Amino acid sequence: VTDRCDFRCAYCMDPDQRFAPRDAVLTLEELRRVAGLFVDLGVRKVRLTGGEPLVRRNLTWLMRELGALPGLDELVITTNGSRLAAMAQEVRDAGVKRINISLDSLRPERFRAITRTGDLNLVLRGIDAAIAAGFERIKLNAVMMRNRNHDEVCDLVDFAVRKGINISFIEEMPIGRIGGHDRSEVFYSSAQIQADITARFELIPTTETTGGPARYFRIPDTETRVGFISPHSHNFCADCNRVRVTTEGRLLLCLGQEHSLDLREILRKEPDDDEPLRSAILSAMQIKPEGHQFEPGGHSVTLRHMNLTGG
Ligand code: SAM
Ligand code: SF4
Fold first, then answer.
1. Gap from CA of 118 to ligand 2 centroid (Å)
2. pLDDT tens, 284-297?
3. Gap from CA of 234 to ligand 1 centroid (Å)
């Protein structure tokens, strides 16, 4: 869906990138069928991400359908926030309880540079709309890069505290080829971020988890939890139970490896029989890799970009 994404983040845009033809993309009904099978097989949490999920027409239909699946405990979404000012209430009403919003900078010019065309004000209005819509949990995601935005760590925490929401800092992963920067120069570790924060805020470790890879801290006397997602410095592969399905129906078994399976072919060949799809999913789990081989600043291990993979 990134052909309709308003932003063009350095993370996921490649000058050679080509957009998929419409019939290559799974319909919302096909996505529902795939998700339903995963939930039947025991999946308890589904995240809609991308690409930018909120540019997909009628996505709230899919949200309502997924929200009604018996057995699904959590339906969550990750968005760049650019459409939230208009859509937050609709998304909340469709049954999404938790939302992650990407925010790498609070400086309009810098925000525009990092996201290529992004409008910070629009995203800030989107964050306010999400707060007003009454999501149970709102989390900002910030990918920190040295000499790009690392000097904003405390400002971002301060912003989250003032809004009464959570924030996670993510170490940049070497996913997809990029032309914009040398990854070894921009690597900024979770330990460095934590040191920056503790110069201004007290961080109390917690054992809380949202079932994902983040390690969480609380800031006393605030509503804010600060998380660290550290693919380099605290590899979390051993606990990873995530798989991803792209809009083209490819089942990706690891963020940092190429192992995958084409579900679309099976899905379309067998429109009325779920069994072949179910057994393909089950056997794909046998080839889920043990982990990624990211190195800080290392070369990309996958050619696939984050917008195709889903962060
Ligand atoms: N369009 C949505 C958005 O921008 O939030 C969802 C997709 S985006 C790929 C999901 C998250 O992955 C964002 O928070 C983004 O900052 C993060 N991300 C993108 N590229 C990354 C990279 N190379 N390393 C770590 N995180 C990355
Ligand atoms: Fe759009 Fe998200 Fe990709 Fe940025 S990271 S171009 S916001 S899909």
1. 10
2. 988 887 666 555 55
3. 18
Q: Residue with structure tokens 């925000």?
A: 111
* Per-residue exposure over 196-205, b if at least 16 CB sit within 10 Å of its own CB, e if not: bbeeebebee
Kindly state the tokens that stand for 85.
């000012």
Alpha carbon dihedral 129, 86, 9, 76, in 10-degree steps, equals 60
Atom of ligand 2 lying closest to residue 51 CA: 8
Q: From residue 24, how far is each of 27, 118, 178, 247, 270 by CA, in Å?
A: 9, 27, 25, 8, 16
Provide the token pair at 169: 């800092």
CA atoms within 13 A on the CB side of 33: 20
Amino acid at 270: E
DSSP state of 242: -
Does 256 sit in the ligand 2 pocket, CB within 6 Å? no
Check if 307 has its Cβ closer than 6 Å to any atom of ligand 2.
yes
Beta strands, E only, 22-149:
45-48, 74-79, 98-102, 137-144
Q: What is the pLDDT of residue 53?
A: 94
Instruction: Quote the tokens at residue 63.
Output: 């949200």
For the CA atoms of the chain, what is the radius of gyration? 19
**pLDDT, tens digit, for every residue of 232-244?**
877 777 778 889 9
Please compute the mean of the pLDDT values over residues 13-24 and round it to a whole number: 67
- The predicted model scores a pTM of 0.88
At 158, is the secondary structure helix, strand, or coil? helix
Distance of CA 177 from the midpoint of ligand 1 (Å): 14
Collapsing DSSP to helix, strand or coil, 138 comes out as strand
Ligand 1 atom nearest to CA at 12: 20
Q: Give residue ranges with CB within 6 A of ligand 1.
A: 11-12, 49-52, 78-80, 102, 141, 143, 170, 172-173, 175, 306-307, 311
Evaluate the omega torsion of the peptide bond into residue 51 and state whether it is cis, within 30 degrees of 0: yes
